[in-house]
Every structure is written in structure tokens, then in C-alpha cells.
Amino acid sequence: MEKIRNNDIDVILPFPTVHEPDISEHHARYIKEQDWDAMLYALKELAPEYYKACDKIFLQKYMYNYNILIAKTDVLRKYCEWLFPILKRVEQMSVPKGDERADRYIGYIGENLLTLYFMSCKDDLNIVHTGRIMLI
After folding, report:
1. pLDDT tens profile 24-75
2. Helix/strand/coil (H, E, C) string of the chain?
3. Nearest CA-CA partner of 116 in 41, 63, 80
4. Cβ contacts of 12 within 8 Å, gap of 6 or more
């Protein structure tokens, strides 16, 4: 944590993964279209400034997978205050709901929202990237 403080790092994220031709490849594979539409609706309703950035961000090739980050307390708090109401709204609109589902659609949507949030804030935050180790 001292390195974060000494270097004024706001957030550490894994290196983004590359998706061809763009991020839509990822969500088309893992997220049902009705859930994607619910996410877009929730964004438009709860975070319209981010909704406006969707086309730009989701048509790029780079995505933050795995829903992992290390962040300063205030950065993490702001992100969570933004993220969880959107995910809650998506779940309210999903069919079937909650425990009735066996897929991890909310996790996949969260990855897209993590990408949207931090790619949108990249000029305002000191973001550094690191590798990751997958444990099996």
C-alpha cells in the first residue's frame, strides 16, 4: 500500500484483454441480449453520462476482465456507489431473477461496467496495470 501512496496511484487494474473485433464479441458470447439491454436501460436511467460513452467504450478492443482491482478507498467507494445500483437495477429487470439463474450474467455485466467506468475515468485517475496469475 505504501507504493500506491508514494506514487499517487488511484487504482491498479489487470492489463486489459483484447477482444476481436471489439468488446461486443465478449458480451455476445456471455450475456443474453435481454440482459445487455437491461444494463443499457439501467445506465441510461441511473448514469446517463456513462450511457453516452457506451458506444465509444464498447466498440473498442480492450476490456478489463475478472472484476478485480486495487484502489484507494475513495476511488473504490465512488466506483461501488456507481456500480451496485446499476447491477441491482439490471437484476430487477432480469428474467428469471436472482437465485433462479445458473449463469453468472451479473459478473459478466460487471466486467463490462468496470471497463466502462475506468476507461471513462482514465484521464481523471492515475491507473496502473499489472499482470495476473490464474490459480487452478
Report:
1. 888 888 899 999 999 999 999 999 999 999 999 999 999 998 899 999 999 9
2. CHHHHHCCCCEEEECCEECCCCCHHHHHHHCCHHHHHHHHHHHHHHCHHHHCCHHHHHCCCEECCCCCCEECHHHHHHHHHHHHHHHHHHHHHCCCCHHHCCCCHHHHHHHHHHHHHHHHCCCCCCEEEECCCCCC
3. 63
4. 4, 69, 70, 71, 127, 128, 129, 130
Grid coordinates given for 47: 448514469
Preceding peptide of 48 cis, ω within 30°: no
Say if residue 96 is preceded by a cis peptide, omega within 30 of 0.
yes
Separation CA 128–CA 83 (nearest Å): 21
CA dihedral of residues 62, 112, 64, 1 (deg, nearest 10): 140
pTM for the full model? 0.91
Q: What Cα–Cα distance (Å) separates residue 78 from each residue in 7, 73, 82, 106?
A: 20, 9, 6, 19
